[in-house]
Amino acid sequence: MTDVSEKKTFSQDVKKVELPAVDLRDPALYLNREISWIEFDRKVLETAQDKKVPLIDRVKFLAIFFNNLDEFYMVRVMNLQRQARSGVAPTGADQMPPAKQLSEIRKRVTGMLDVAESLWFDELRPALAKKDLRFVKYDELTVKQKKALNRYFDEQILPILTPQAVDAGRPFPMISNTSLNFVIELTPAAADDESSVRFARLKCPNNLPRLLFVPNTIESDTGLTFKYGEDTDKILLVEDLIGERLETLFPGYCVKNYGLFRVTRNTDGEIEEDEADDLLSAVRDYVEQRRFGSIVRLELARGCPRRLQEFLFEHFDIRSYQVFKSRMPLGFSEFMAILSADKPALKYSPRKPRIPAAFEADSDVFAAIAERDQMVYHPYDSFGCVLHFLQQAALDPNVVAIKQTLYRCGSRSPVVKSLLEARRRGKQVTAVVELKARFDEEQNINWAEELERAGVNVVYGFAGLKIHAKLCLVVRREGAGMRRYVHIGTGNYNASSAKIYTDLGLFTTNQAICSDVQDLFNVMTGYGIVERYRALFVSPKLLRHNVSALIEEEIHLHETKGGGHIILKCNQLVDPDIIALLYKASRAGVKIECIVRGICCLRPGLKGISETITVRSVVGELLEHARVYWFRHGGDERMYIGSADLMTRNLNGRIEVLTPVLDADIRANILTQIIEPQLKDNIHAWVQASDGSYRKLSPNAGEAAYSSQDEIGRHLRLMARGTAKKAAGH
Predict the structure, then answer these.
(1) What is the residue-wise DSSP string for 49-106?
(2) What are phi and psi of 13, to 5 degrees?
(3) DSSP conformation class of 381
(4) 378, 388, 468, 487: which is the annotated catalytic residue?
(5) Does the annotation mark 468 as catalytic?
(6) Where in the chain is the domain with CATH 3.30.870.10?
(7) How far apart are alpha carbons 182 and 291 in whole angstroms?
(8) Digit-coded pLDDT (tens) for 237-270
(9) Which of 17, 103, 266, 679 is deepest in the core (most CB within 10 A)?
(10) Could you tell me which residue, 193 or 643, shows the higher pLDDT?
(11) Architecture of domain 357-525 in CATH?
(12) CA-closest candidate to residue 708, choices 682, 671, 670
């Protein structure tokens, strides 16, 4: 990467080379979106394989791998299955037929599941056992341990279990999405002929702890919760305990066989927004229906008896390619609970976030922002900076109004609490709550209703558009007038996810930005059409145009002055129109460096197409989530941060915001303290090849190991202005 902070001189040799004409929309130039996503999850799995990662965190990454896979099947696969059955033409830029996509998905997923299985049984589980975290079966426990667990079963588990018989009078029950279930074969205790066989289903409740940490010394079997303690080195899965006690649920019957299964259902249903008189009710109905969407995948625990498998197949409308048999514990995402074990030597050292001076407890945050723009980078900078801003706004008698977008704010949101406090103190408070945040709809409905009860002006967003922008506007009376303060972020207003997601946040009083945010809130809460914003890029109407124009300008400036350079840091790069423009820029000679965490449909390094484009991904302890778009622009650089990825849905179907970073020192610091380290990373970085595969980097001989997340944690000072000059005595 060029050190743009030092404004080095670029070559002026801009002799234009005539290239042969190429169709930049040729499907061969685009990677398949779904396959690219699988390759992202492969990186997560390979992180779990990395012996340099602490042991418990390796289990965490394995759990994340399975959680990602669950979501992939819930959201993406059913549509492909329907397309394949109906024989519709391919729709993606790559034009891969749906049936071929499904075949490729199954091949790759099956291969990754085999790797995950070997990793768990051959490496992680034995390694955990050596560190006194042994996964055991019921029979391996002592008499006292069994007695305590049986009492726990009788008192805490049995009362909430509901066995369901399946016979002529009682049809096979509806199986909820991702629930863990027993299928059971029974015979009457007094009968001995096959005709008396009965079948039943039992759901393993999802409000029970999955991992039972069993103490070695049991003084009393009363009051045991089987949470991790100093005296625990054994872990029993709750389904093993329930399986051991199944006959308790069926008096007069013997359990002949049982197996475990799990279904994944399609959750990507449509909310009939255009026909709904009440969007809140429509979303609530959708959330309820989603639990019972069409089955997209059936997982069977390896060893499930054939007769029970056939019984399930009789009652599920599924095809063979939808069935997966696994030796892994089903629902492995729940193994994230192992993080509760107090084993600091087996985990990443906890990061202590900084609180910049502007946001310290006794600071006047409004004075600091009024003096100059402030930029924070979570979790290196504490999310407490945002909370301090909101809390001070709630308590300040001079603040008259707060307007806030809420997308995923968490179950115990201090952000919402600040809004409620502001309303109690008589301020005008507006909350734009996006009800359609996938998997957070129910929580958002609850928050919206609580805010409404407190007198907050609650707006539920638009029919047909998600509001994904991360915005907060505070209006404060100062002297004879009003002053506006704005926060624009790349991540959600969620204190929990801000501990593990890397996100940028800008605080500013810039008049143009504040006026734009004010106009956008008025559009979101009322009626209005804004044809042009002063500073912000706003989708769905203008963001695509603005980003495209910057790429075109970079091409023009490179052809006239040389030194064309674009840096894109985002989560997904999918939109074919943007990719085609990047190909055009590359053919013109513009250097393009992409840092893309997840899906990337662009093929870098293609001769005559994308030779100047590189794509890398950083997958480490923290989840990279910030979006940064930088253009050299002939030396008059432009930088934007915000909520939008380069996906068609972000550009066309959502309200997104990118804001310019106007402070030159902050721009330079983002480049030198965030972007450059990620472009130098040789520990957690992956480089993408033109075929979509990734190669994990490692230090070359004689080269020092370099982890960008560690380096950023050590050196980040986004709000330092001219630090290097001051240190040099200038």
Answers:
(1) H-TTS-HHHHHHHHHHHHHHHHHHIIIIIHHHHHHHHHTPPP-STT---HHHHHHHHH
(2) -75, 100
(3) B
(4) 468
(5) yes
(6) 357-525, 537-721
(7) 18
(8) 999 999 999 999 999 999 999 999 999 998 875 4
(9) 266
(10) 643
(11) 2-Layer Sandwich (3.30)
(12) 682
**Listed residue (470, 465, 497) closest to 406, CA to CA:** 470
Write down the pLDDT at residue 290.
54
**Amino acid identity of 308?**
L
| pLDDT tens string 450-509 | 889 999 998 887 777 889 999 999 999 999 999 999 999 999 999 999 999 999 999 999
Tokens matching residue 624? 């990279």
Write phi, then psi, for 564 (nearest 5 degrees). -60, 135
> What pLDDT shows up at residue 448?
78
CATH T-level topology, domain 537-721: Endonuclease; Chain A (3.30.870)
Residue-wise DSSP of 196-242 = G-EEEEEEE-TTS-SEEEEES--S-SSS------TTEEEEEEHHHHH
pLDDT at 2 over 80: no
pLDDT in tens, 599-622: 999 999 999 999 999 999 999 999
* Tokens matching residue 333: 């995402």
The tokens for 129 are 């056992």
d(CA 294, CA 377): 41
Closest CA to 298 of 138, 609, 77: 77
Residues of the chain with CATH 3.30.1840.10: 134-287+298-309
Helix (H) or strand (E) holding 327: none
Which pLDDT band holds residue 223 (cuts at 50, 70, 90)? confident
CATH 3.30.1840.10 fits 134-287+298-309, yes or no: yes
Give the pLDDT confidence score for residue 190 in this predicted structure: 79
Residues in CB range of 359: below 8 A, 6 or more apart: 365, 368, 374, 376, 382, 384, 385, 388, 389
For 292, the token pair is 């019972």
DSSP strand E in 83-175: where? 134-135, 163-166
